Amino acid sequence: MAYTVSPVQHTIADRIDLSGIGVHSGEKVSLSLLPADANSGINFVRTDLPAHQQTDIPAVSSAVAATDLCTVLGDPSGAHVKTVEHLMAALMGMGVDNVLVEVDNPEIPVLDGSSEEFVDAILAVGLKAQGRTRRRLRVLREVHVPMGNSWGTFTPHDCPRFEVEIDFDDEVIGRQSYAVDLTPDSFAKDISRARTFGFMKDVESYWAAGFALGSSLENSVVIGEDNAIINPEGLRYENEFVRHKLLDAVGDLALAGAPIVGCFQSYRGGHKLNAIALEALLSDPDNYEWIGEEVVTGPRTSRVELVSVKAPAFAPDKS
From 62, 137, 217, 291, which residue has the greatest number of CB atoms within 10 Å? Predict the structure, then answer.
């Protein structure tokens, strides 16, 4: 099988501007993606903060600060950004190594609940090869992580691959599986359009806890009390639910700080399992090796380290 991850770093060829609302806050958000220098990685900046607080927040596991229903990067009492998963999936899936993300709100806009609008914007401006070696993380041996009735496993493979299976008691979802070798083409066509989903019965409890205040049929697939999909347009894929779980896994594992050359398998997983599995992979240097010679250095960080995720989970997932 041909190696599918480019050995050369890329950034976006031009500025991208998007706007929407935060799925949890319900507030309006404007976001800009800016081309960034080689070896700078992916960094977030909060433009709504005072100038002295506008520090770069690197999109790496060591920056994870909290994980209640979304990933929070940075300092929760200062410069931080949350709900980064769908954007991170788009950047990783489309092969973007270096970009500066400017956002005027603590939360990344949910847009339509998938990665499609991010992907379309990236395709519209194109990518720029930067002539520097891309760092990649190659899995050297199996790393298996059980979690109750769920499990996640990394195994050696010659390209980035994801194999995800979900198993819900709900009749609409049931048991679904999907597997893909991750390339920009496969991500754009087969993964990026899958939307986040939830159950109407859970909405009130989320609202009471201050979450999902911006959730609607415009950005979520909603399953009603009668086990029917409420969205009038129905599903984008027959198995959209498992494809979105795979999309989330791509975004979660992007916080390794580099593409992972290996296969990630999960059963009844979600953000929590993805985080624990990534932690297990990075906890032992014998589990992986670097491909490429470049060391990624952000503007205000001396080195991007592969540090285990310290928080217990990305979100309280249901299987």
Answer: 137
